[in-house]
């Protein structure tokens, strides 16, 4: 990654120019940079930011100059002081949500929304398992699941992260570096297992996640922090109790404007009500995005990462 001068120019039809105030960093950015999710090169990076509309192109009627906006998705290129982009992914920010909070929560918060409210609809009284509970998605999802009435079991890799996960909604925390996750989940659930596992880690946790499920349970594999899950035999699912596995992505849950606005409204309400508070644990200058990536991939970070513009 290089920090270079770039003039964004004027927006075309259906586009706007946005002046960023804060930019979010997500693990998917490392997939784009590293080639796991190939993109045409050269390319910008980043899918999440918040700022102010500077000017609008022809045909844009839902936004105007001066509007406070945020987004998660659309063409890559959020790692910039300003950019021209399609108007379609942009959402107007409620007055009570600042730029930093928005940049820290849009992609991770919308991910938590579809995980908990669409992929598997969490119900009061259920016990669920959430890997990487001290990460950006984890801290939001744990709080939200607790607000929905669920008991959250979270996995983490250190005592500091365990304390953070407990403070953000996890009733039980398992340190996977020195504890057996499957045994502890079975102990907590009286041997039954859980109806759903939310797994953003991937290769290192996949089969343990399956072993934590109750019969006919669902493994939601939504990330690859440890690497992509290798091919496996479908008989692994039947042998463990007629299990289900899904590999969802945010783009398919926000493919229409109505779906995007509905998911964002739930997220904004959860934050505004205090049910979910956004943890900005690390900040970097925008020009130091490469350092942020190194820290994220080395698992030296917790919560959300924001690049200051």
Automatic annotation (TrEMBL):
Its EC number is 1.6.5.5. Residues 1-307 form the Enoyl reductase (ER) domain. It is an enzyme of class 1 (oxidoreductase). SMART domains: PKS_ER (SM00829). Keywords: NADP, Oxidoreductase. One of its GO terms (molecular function) is zinc ion binding. PROSITE patterns: QOR_ZETA_CRYSTAL (PS01162). InterPro entries: ADH-like_C, ADH-like_N, ER, GroES-like_sf, NAD(P)-bd_dom_sf, QOR-like, Quin_OxRdtase/zeta-crystal_CS. Signal peptide: none annotated. It catalyses: 2 a quinone + NADPH + H(+) = 2 a 1,4-benzosemiquinone + NADP(+). Pfam families: ADH_N, ADH_zinc_N. One of its GO terms (cellular component) is cytosol. It comes from the Bacteria. Belongs to the zinc-containing alcohol dehydrogenase family. Quinone oxidoreductase subfamily. This is NADPH:quinone reductase.
